[in-house]
Amino acid sequence: SPVLRGKWVMEVLIGSPPPPPPPGIPDLEETEGSEDGRLLTTRERMALHRENASCNSCHRMMDPIGLVLDNFGVSGKWRARENGTALDTRSEFYDGTPIETPADLTRALLNRPIPLVRTFTENLMAYALGRRVEYYDQPTIRDITKLAEMNDYRLSSFILGVIKSDAFQMQRAGASVEMPLSEQEIH
């Protein structure tokens, strides 16, 4: 679904998840309809869904991102038509940049690298630490992103920044790790 893809990009890549939908709003899949005897495309159903003002506030950000990826079917296979109608993936990124292809979306994301890089660093740090990042991790995350920028965003800069950080190298007080018993201690 373009909605789920747009939501995923906003959450995982941009780090700006949309709020949950208001109660009582039907899912996009429940927005059915036909025009001139043909089934509506996902794009047309999304437009109907956005007519509800409470839906439009979030969908106007998510839907354009997801529509650009609509050529990928459910299985990931490239498709050019839906319900017999040619797909229209033309859209506009939230900053006004016209986008139509996955490559256009990539360029739009990279034109504003700060949210993308910050979110990547936060996710890498969370994975390395085995916990969520907290407010007190933000100075370290900023330092890592600055270091990576100076090194043309090389992956090694992110990794080195994380493993050299105090948060990675020092165990927090109160946390303990149970070690398995040795064979001698068991007997």
The biggest sheet amounts to: 2 strands, antiparallel
How many E strands?
6
Helix-strand pattern, N to C? HEEHHEEEEHHHHHH
Structural class: mainly alpha
What global shape is seen? elongated
Straight-line N-to-C gap: 57 Å
Enumerate the strands of the largest sheet in spatial order, edge to edge or round the barrel: 1-2
* Total domains: 2
Give a short synopsis of this structure.
The protein is mainly alpha-helical. It is built from 9 helices and 6 strands, in the order αββααββββαααααα.
What does this structure look like?
By secondary structure, the chain is mainly alpha-helical. The chain folds into two domains: 110 residues, no CATH class; 57 residues. It contains nine helices and six strands. A two-stranded antiparallel sheet has the order 1-2. Strands 3-4 form a two-stranded antiparallel sheet. A two-stranded antiparallel ribbon has the order 5-6. The protein is elongated and about 75 Å long. 19% of the residues are buried.
